[in-house]
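Data deposition worksheet. Section B asks for the primary sequence of the deposited chain exactly as it was used as input, without tags or linkers unless they were present during the calculation. Section C holds the resulting structure in C-alpha cell form. Section D is free text for depositor observations; keep each observation to a single sentence. Incomplete worksheets are returned to the depositor.
Section A, Depositor: J.P.
Section B:
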Amino acid sequence: MELMKVDKAQYRQRMNVVLASLVASLTLLSLGFGAVLIELFGNKSLVSGESTGHFHLNLLGVILAVLSCSLVMNYYKKHEYLKEIYWVWKLKQLHNRIYRKLAKIKLAASDNNPDALTVLLFYLTTQKQVFELDNNTLTLATVQADIDAVALTLEGLNLDITAADFSETLLDKF
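Section C:
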C-alpha cells in the first residue's frame, strides 16, 4: 500500500458529509422501505392496545436500507471525492492485519529482522497519520516514541529503511 499525503481539513469535511449522508439515507430509506412493506404485507386489522406485528417488516426495511447504502458506497468508493476516505479505510483494515501479527513482528524486530522493522515502521508511521486525521491525540506521544525507537534501531544497524519500503507481502513472513 502506498503512502498518501492527506489534507486533514478536507478529509474531516468530506468524512462529515459522507457520515451525515449515510445517517440520513439510512433513516429515510429504513422508514420508506418499512412503510412500503407494511402497506404491501402488513396486518390490515389492528386492535387498539395490541402490537401491530410489523416488527419483522420494519426490520426487513432496515436491512434493505443497509444493503442499498452499502451498494451505493461500494459503487462510488473509488470516486475522487471519496479517495482519502477510502484510502484511510483500507489503511485501517491493513492495520488490523498487522495488529493480529504484531507480537511476532515485534519479536522479530527485537532480533533486528529488517522485514519486521520495515513492517513496524510502516505500521507506526501510518498509525500516527490516522490518529492525527481522526483527532486521536491521546496516544500520539507513545506512537512517536515507538517510531523514534525503531528509527534509532535502524540507524544503529545502518539500515536505510523507510515506511515507503513496506509491502503487504512482508506480512506473509510472520
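Section D:
The chain has a mean pLDDT of 92.
Residues 23 and 65 are 11 Å apart (CA to CA).
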